[in-house]
Every structure is written in C-alpha cells, then in structure tokens.
Amino acid sequence: MRDDPIVAEVRAIRDEFAAQCGYDMKEIFRNLREQQAKSGLKYVHYPGRWVASSEDVRASETTSAGRSPNRRRATSP
Fold first, then answer.
1. To which H or E segment does residue 65 belong?
2. pLDDT tens digits, residue range 22-51?
3. What is the pTM of this model?
C-alpha cells in the first residue's frame, strides 16, 4: 500500500493542531467550538443518540425482546 500525500498532509495538519492544544481533547473541542462561534456560520447540531448500557448489551445477547427500557440518552458535547 503506498502513502497518499493528501492523507499525509491532513494527518500533519491534525497533529499540528493537536500539538497547539497540548493533545488535550477538551482543549481541542473548546478551540473548535470557539472557531465555530467566530466564523459566523450556522452549524447543524443533531440530538444525542441512544446508547445501550453494558447491561442492555448482555441482556440482548440472551433475549430478543427488542429495545430495553434501561437505555440512556448520550449527551451532546
């Protein structure tokens, strides 16, 4: 498999940005949200998705009862 120069460029830019934020995920997302706010553009925000708890996964492996009432809603960042 040969190296793709576009992929290499994107990865280099991503690494540079992460380094500027100290590789801290909270800082990276804070920085991105700040850039969004400054851009003046309208961004789409989707509602959180339902995420199965580990108990639901174990229960679904043993039954086929469908969606469990113990599912919880994922929080948006």
1. none
2. 999 999 999 999 999 999 999 888 888 888
3. 0.52
